[in-house]
Amino acid sequence: MYIAPSEVTTKELDSARSSAWRWHVGALLITFLAIGTLYHETFLEMIGIWSRSQTFNHCFLVLPIAVFLGYSRRHVLTQVDPSISLLGATYLAANGIAWLAGYLLSAAALEHAAVVGMLIGAGWTLIGTTAFRVLLVPFLYLYFAVPFGEFLVPFLQDWTATVLVWTLRLTGMPVFLEGRFLSIPSGNFVVAEACSGINYLIATLAVGTMYMYLNFAAWWRRALFMLAAVAVPLIANGLRAYGIVMIAHHSGYRYAVGIDHFIYGWAFFGVVIFALFAVTAPLADRTDATDRAEIQSALSGRRSRFRPVPLALVLVAALAAPVALAMFSMDRAAVSTSIALPEVPGWAGPLDVEETLGAEFGGATDYRSGRYRDRSEHEITLEVAYFQRDEAGAELVNQTNRFFDPHEWRRVGESRRAGPAGSDIQQIDVVELRKVDSGAPYVLWHWYQANDARTANRFAVKLAQARARLGFGQLGAAAVMLLAPESDAEPLLENFAREPALRLDTLVAPAP
To answer: Is the dihedral of CA 102, 330, 509, 424 positive or negative?
Structure first.
């Protein structure tokens, strides 16, 4: 049978492209395996967070969804030649460096984002920029596997409280708000961390991104939908809180105060997400015509041959971070294993503590509390959490650490100020507290001490700890907390915080 030359050329191109894809995908799977092996501790740490936190339970679905999104573009990929991208290799290497920085800073979120970025960089490198553009959203979707965003919880709590108070007053319900605690005539409520709506926001963004990719093609439609995917859960969470309060109020607190509180919440958000999709469905513009246009824009018209040398470069880039870590992260001896509260001139103490903060610092090497009294019978409580080393599971700066027990203390207000004049404390966090049982007002000052830094700035503390781990300074760090009754708290705390005895090198006790 006679076959036209153009037909022969087409068949040869398809065969060559299919063979190239097998080689490139095989190399990519090998590289994924290498990254997973080298950084298995980081991946296991991420999976542990997915399991423990309801906020990130959805992360188990991220990889299957990303694969599904990529599979939905298979008809485009069959028209594209795979290649090797040096720009992708650069992105991979940059994430290796970011992982190293996260390790040195004990910044788990940076480590988690970096290993996911390395997977994306490996994909970019081994399928080429043209094919990567086709799979850009499926690859970027992998970032939803990073358990990140809990730092937003305090801001979302305040937002929810604001919306809740506004809606209550709008419907004629008298309400009094103090911090995140509010009172209506029939009872009291608190906008706790579980009420912040962070889990609803992240889940809506994850599901919404999948919906956006499958239904929208124009960039402005995608952007408009994602803006709605952020705004809708923020507003809806405030309305959800309003509904919970009103159900509890009108039912005599028989409903919406236990597990049904969360059931109502998720049922409500299921309706909200469905409504979001239904309202935006008429804007969907992805059709066969847009798919054909995507194919035309993706066609490279080039044949690609697999070469082992670029793969070796990719593997070297993946290995660079642990090698650099072995070179620069020195296994140095710790300063001490304990601390001792100092004697402070003009103050009697340390005495036994009567009013503790109930602070939580997971993995702390040592924790000490003491009470001090001046000649005028004013009292200050000093509490110090000491960390001999900063490592996974024992981090001075960690989102899960707490300076006070929220069940015993009510946060009324919070601010940041410069350290007292005459001291070397750069910044202090000031928290106004009330005892839950008595309502007695207190003021809490707290800051961190690490290497040459004495500040409430978490990033500055992390940098100081990283410098110490590299050999530029002293290991060991601490959180310092001063608690005083609200009356005359300002001058008392200022005078006490100026004392050199509160510096880390004074607090550290000689190792036995």
So the answer is: negative
| CA gap 302, 482 in Å, rounded | 68
Q: Are 131 and 58 within 8 A, CB to CB?
A: no
Burial class (CB in 10 A: 0-12, 13-18, 19+), 121: buried
Beta bridge partners of 368: 384
* Cα 197 to Cα 46: distance, rounded to the nearest angstrom: 21
What would the DSSP string read from start to end of 260-306? HHHHHHHHHHHHHHHHHHHHHGGG----HHHHHHHHHHH--------
Which has the closest alpha carbon to 369: 351, 388, 343? 351
DSSP annotation string for 135-203: THHHHHHGGGGS---GGGHHHHHHHHHHHHHHHHHHTT---EEETTEEEETTEEEE--GGGS-HHHHHH
Instruction: Give the span between the Cα atoms of 150 and 173, in whole angstroms.
Output: 31
Contact 190, 176 (CB under 8 A): no
| Residue 203 vs residues 145, 149, 230: alpha-carbon distances, Å | 11, 12, 10
Helix residue spans in 412-469 (DSSP H): 458-469
Residue 482 and residue 382 in contact, taking contact as beta carbons nearer than 8 Å: yes
Tokens of 28: 């990519």
pTM for this entry: 0.76
Taking only the tens place, the pLDDT of each residue in 140-199 is: 999 999 998 877 888 888 888 888 889 989 888 888 887 788 888 888 887 877 777 788
The answer to whether the CB of 80 falls within 8 A of the CB of 134 is: yes
Nearest in space to 411 (alpha carbons), one of 429, 434, 428: 434
